[in-house]
Specification:
This protein is mainly alpha-helical. It is built from 10 helices and 3 strands, in the order ααββααααβαααα.
Length: 224
């Protein structure tokens, strides 16, 4: 299975079948004890903000998603988003994106070096046991976010979570930094206590799992 997820052909087919790079790819996957979670934000002044919350069936699949979907899209929009509105995106080869950005004079050598280093690190994780991948991806997320803080025109952000409970607590904490508990309940249709309880049940109860997926895709766009 590792070989399958570490394949541009696998992800190209998955993306084309779903006509998206966003969370719809995984919407039919059941939530299990192995499910991990991801939040990422891609912002460009020309294209606006893209905030995605998604469950992903397992850690190695998350690794593949980062390598073949997130990084290519994020780097492409970092390079091109300063110049134009990007409505569609389908290039899954991050190295090619970097090469073309350098050739066109839209990417600095220092930015390209950081991108290449981050791609190389993600590739190295295919040799890491699945139970250690999430720890490494959390470290990577912190470095990624520091690298692409950007400015008023562009920024990139990502965060990964090992469980629904971890995700749920993060969402509550993030909301409280900018809003009230009442506002949280209005956004997602349940109290903080019920939200935490839902997150604890998602891998045990299919109905709870579907409710979580719906909340992630429908109600969390304002919590970035």
């Amino acid at each position: 299975m590792i070989v399958t997820y570490n394949s541009i052909d696998y992800w190209d087919k998955l993306v084309r079948n779903n006509k998206t790079l966003k969370s719809r790819i995984f919407e039919n996957e059941p939530i299990t004890e192995k499910t991990v979670y991801m939040h990422y934000v891609i912002f460009t002044r020309k294209s606006g903000i893209q905030s995605v919350w998604t469950p992903i069936p397992k850690a190695k699949m998350l690794l593949g998603y980062i390598q073949y979907c997130l990084l290519p899209e994020a780097f492409y929009k970092w390079i091109e988003g300063k110049y134009k509105n990007i409505a569609e995106f389908s290039q899954l080869n991050a190295e090619k994106i970097i090469s073309e950005g350098l050739k066109d004079g839209k990417l600095s050598q220092s930015e390209a070096a950081v991108m290449k280093k981050q791609i190389a690190f993600i590739k190295s994780l295919w040799d890491v046991p699945s139970d250690k991948v999430m720890k490494e991806l959390k470290k990577f997320s912190r470095e990624f976010n520091m690298s692409w803080l950007g400015d008023i025109d562009t920024f990139l952000y990502m965060k990964v979570f090992s469980s629904a409970s971890e995700l749920g607590q993060f969402i509550i904490n993030t909301n409280l930094q900018t809003d009230s508990e009442d506002a949280f309940e209005k956004k997602i249709g349940m109290s903080e206590e019920k939200w935490i309880e839902l997150c604890k049940q998602v891998h045990k109860n299919p109905v709870s799992g579907e409710k979580l997926k719906l909340t992630l895709t429908r109600d969390l766009t304002e919590i970035v």
